[in-house]
Amino acid sequence: MSSPNPAANWPWSEELDALNAAWEHHTLLLENERVRVIMTHIPAGQKTQVHTHRWPSVITFLQWSDFIRRDANDCEMLDTRTLATHPEPQTAVWSLPFAPHSVENVGDTELRTISVELKEERRG
Fold it and tell me: What's the count of helices (H) and strands (E) in the chain, helices before strands?
């Protein structure tokens, strides 16, 4: 039995989806009715366009680089340089959906991740 899908009430336009608004930094690897797998690659010194991620996801860091995440108004939400620790390569983390934001790679290497976005929640 499926539970209600919070993404069905997503208030942002499809134009802001990462694969549309920030296509230079996001590559679709697989998509079906249950999941969408996206590789993100942001070279050092680059900043993505403002974009969204509609579904919760498991994000695996393939290559770490410090970054700043900003909201749609360019206000800083996260600067990873201030964190006590950073994920090791091949570390997976859970992420809720992301409202409009941009990511700027302020590190010395390319930031590379693979996100498995979960389109539906199944129970039972």
Answer: 1, 9
d(CA 21, CA 38): 14
Per-residue pLDDT 10s for the chain (124 aa) are 344 455 568 999 999 999 999 999 999 999 999 999 999 999 999 999 999 999 999 999 999 999 999 999 999 999 999 999 988 889 999 999 999 999 999 999 999 999 999 997 655 4
Structural domain including 21 reads 6-118
| Amino acid making up residue 113 | T
> Does residue 1 lie within any of the structural domains?
no
Neighbours of 86 (CB within 10 A): 14
